[in-house]
Amino acid sequence: MSTTHSTTQQGGEAGPVVHHLNVKPSHTDGHGHARNPGTDLNLDWLDHIQANFSAIERRTKTLGGRRSVKKQWQAAWLLRAISCMDLTTLSGDDTKGRVRRLCAKAKHPVRTDLLEALGAQDLDLTVGAVCVYHEMVPTAVAELKGTNIPVAAVSTGFPHGLSPMPQRIKEIEASVKAGAKEIDIVITRAHVLTQNWRALYDEVAKFRAACGEAHLKAILATGELATMRNVAKASMVAMMAGADFIKTSTGKESVNANLDVSLVMVRMIREYFAETGYKIGYKPAGGISTAKDSLAYLALMKEELGNDWLSPELFRFGASSLLGDIERQLEHYVTGHYSADYRHPMA
Description:
- The chain has 347 residues and is of the alpha/beta class.
- The protein has a domain at 31-71 and 128-323: Aldolase class I (TIM Barrel), CATH 3.20.20.70.
- It has 14 helices and ten strands.
- The strands form two sheets. The chain has an eight-stranded parallel sheet. A two-stranded antiparallel sheet has the order 1-2.
- The protein is globular and about 55 Å long.
- The two termini are 32 Å apart.
- The model is unreliable at 1-14 and 19-30 (pLDDT under 50).
């Protein structure tokens, strides 16, 4: 990949960023890997899962400093972060107008003048998906028609997941019928807290069956699972039951995504891939609001899982405010100055 443009940062030269991206950072219709069919529930496998919290902390504390990127490399990584973003609105006062504006931003996440200055105007850069409540799925689908950006719907009694099972199944089916290509389900936390792995497996398997061709992202609500070992086991059970992605949080818990819990979950993804050959996606959500945060998560994915997980097919940020800060950082790279938030409106 090459570009004929270069960027000039006030106070010094900065090179073009596009050649630092080895994969075109836009969403594609297909996935470059076989979909996870799930496995039988293997309790012996679960019994061997451990989580050493001290070792987890030592590992994650190295990410912010030892793996820092600067200048054009940082700009390139930030463009990659945008391509892996589930642009989200999940508020009680959501309106069709807000969702339409969000979809417009999803299609054009960075101002044209910035893309031109970065030499990235030909990337067809979009976010990974737009995530909304079921009520807003038809609006989002209509606004994104003609693009490759999928609509993701939160489902199954989001965020608590305590509505009756038949109702949760119907909710999934309704969102798929309305055009959602991805379904973010929430698990019953009590199944994890009581170590009822069969109940958790059966629940996720039913949700996966209801999704049909739509991809299932299993939200574990890790902040409510008490221990890292519970997080690890819940991750593995969700994958055994056929989850295409595992996701940290609804964004509504008191503790949402962080690097410690992310390390546990991606290590389970790595173990599942080594055992089955199927690649599972990962989505940290809630509390990721700065460009610096996004770089740490990208570094974690690259080091723990490799370059295949640096694409929207296998990695997503659940974010609503992250894009604004990334765009400000990109403007700083181009001009040498930080701009006001209002120059990068979200909706």
